[in-house]
Automatic annotation (TrEMBL):
Name of the molecule in the record: Peptide MFS transporter
TM segment ranges: 36-53, 65-87, 96-118, 124-147, 159-178, 184-204, 225-247, 253-274, 286-303, 331-351, 363-380, 392-417, 429-451, 457-476
Protein keywords: Cell membrane, Membrane, Transmembrane, Transmembrane helix, Transport
Main location: membrane
Length: 489
């Protein structure tokens, strides 16, 4: 009997998109435009929140602004739970992907057209929900294009990651130009147009995806629909009440997201491992995912500071002068995607050439986390400098190390999650991987308040050494983790 994952045609029949299944191009495209809009907006979000009203911003306290950015980023990946659950229990991954793209468009339009706090509140909530739903399901849809033993899988995910970073590169550059020349809302408007382009493109190509992309893995009995509706209404009412009573505030929202994500993570691990619908081998693989999850959290809590601490660093410490012209702050967010675009294909070719000789997934995760810690230590030679004195090339070098670490964690994490996932929890396991990003991103916002531009050494040293220690621990325990993975590498 064929595996439930075996939904692709033979490799020979599908080598039509850079050697990958042709349908990969459709998901590649919508994810590229989603990242264009997401990073285009996020590239100017922090400075919009803390720039003065006279400069077109909202004039928030800088620590509060960075906390909001971290909490928002955490909420994006937290909402993958919602999208994954709806995909696995109600609609299937492909339909959720399409609906999520529509919600993202609405969110960016709100940011572009609604003024002040209302635009930020409505826009960020919609973009967070839509992006979360799209991210978990897009990864699941890519997974349906490959048989379990298809050696092109890691290379395919690396190409998928290339599409993500093409959008991530152009988004901050173009929205940053508009923001610096005509204002923040024009930048947000361009992000909306980018997502509209992605939605239109995907609308024409979605019919070519395999039927497995629309399969509901674990259908919810219709008798339980009213209970689910009641739970959703109760959660929404609780959130509104907590906001109105001041329990959830702008200055503690990052901490709130961290608590919620930790609770959701524990609940999901318990839900999956205690299910009667998984085999003993599948349960062992889920347990093997725990150390990978921890390493991923450590990695993302440093990496996602590109949108919190690194924004402030680029604004006040970095020399952004290029031949007498000052580069927009948001352009720093396009440096990492350039390296991804250049190196993702190299990584894909390397893993393909090495085949079974490539490092195991735990080893890749360990090296990626360790390198991320090294990247933070690289800030030390230029720490505590005068304003606008850090050479741009030095930051470019640091972000190159960021990128190498990212290629060892992110596309590899997406790939291994689809391989470790129990058949009944395919999309929800992917949501667990995104929960690690959610937790790391929220932590990036929460720890940003400890960043002191006048004394940067303790901040970069402590966080860098913690990441290095976690990487070393995973590296020495790689063999027992592999044993738990039951044949998955």
């Amino acid at each position: 009997m064929p595996s439930s994952h075996d939904n692709s045609a033979s490799p020979a029949a599908t080598k039509t998109f850079f050697g990958q299944p042709r349908a990969l191009a459709h998901v590649f495209g919508v994810e590229m435009w989603e990242r264009f809009s997401f990073y285009g907006m996020q590239g100017i979000l922090a400075i919009y929140l803390y720039y003065s009203v006279a400069d077109g911003g909202l004039g928030l306290n800088k620590e509060i602004a960075l906390g909001i950015v971290g909490a928002y980023g955490g909420a994006v990946y937290l909402s993958t739970i919602v999208g994954a659950w709806v995909a696995d229990r109600l609609l299937g991954a492909e339909r959720v992907l399409f609906g999520s793209a529509i919600v993202i468009v609405a969110g960016h339009i709100a940011l572009a057209l609604l003024p002040g706090a209302w635009g930020v509140g409505v826009g960020l909530v919609l973009v967070a929900l839509g992006s979360g739903g799209l991210k978990a399901t897009a990864t699941a849809v890519v997974g349906t294009l490959y048989a379990p033993d298809d050696t092109r899988r890691d290379a395919g995910f690396s190409l998928f990651y290339l599409g993500i970073n093409l959008g991530s590169f152009f988004g901050p550059i173009l929205t940053g130009l508009l923001q610096s020349r005509v204002g923040f809302h024009w930048g947000f408007g361009l992000a909306a147009l980018g997502m509209i382009a992605g939605l239109v493109q995907y609308s024409f190509g979605r019919k070519n995806l395999p039927q497995a992309a629309r399969t509901v893995a674990n259908p919810l009995p219709r008798g339980k629909y009213p209970l689910v509706a009641a739970i959703v209404a109760g959660v929404l009412a609780l959130i509104v009440a907590l906001v109105l009573t001041g329990v959830i505030r702008a200055d503690n929202i990052a901490l709130v997201v961290i608590i919620v994500v930790i609770g959701a993570t524990i609940a999901y691990f318990v839900l999956i491992t205690s299910s009667r619908k998984i085999t003993s081998d599948e349960r062992s693989r889920v347990f093997a995912f725990v150390p990978l999850f921890i390493a991923s959290v450590a990695f993302w809590s440093l990496y996602q500071q590109q949108f919190t601490v690194l924004v402030v660093y680029s604004d006040v410490r970095l020399d952004r002068s290029l031949f007498g012209w000052e580069m927009p702050v948001s352009w720093v967010n396009s440096i990492n995607p350039v390296f991804i675009v250049v190196l993702a294909g190299v990584a894909a070719a390397l893993w393909t050439k090495m085949g079974t000789r490539q490092p195991s997934t735990p080893a890749k995760f360990a090296l990626g986390t360790l390198l991320m810690g090294v990247a933070f230590l690289l800030f030390l030679p230029v720490a505590n400098g005068a304003p606008h004195t850090t050479p741009l090339l030095w930051l470019v070098f640091i972000l190159l190390v960021f990128t190498i670490a990212e290629l060892l964690i992110s596309p590899v994490g997406l790939s291994v999650t689809t391989k470790l996932a129990p058949a009944a929890f395919k999309t929800q396991m992917i949501a667990l991987f995104y929960l690690s990003i959610s937790l790391g991103t929220a932590i990036a916002g929460a720890v940003a308040k400890f960043y002191d531009p006048s004394n940067e050494v303790p901040y970069f040293t402590i966080l860098g050494l913690i990441a290095i220690a976690i990487g070393v621990l995973l590296l020495v325990s790689a063999r027992p983790v592999l044993k738990l993975m039951k044949g998955v590498r």
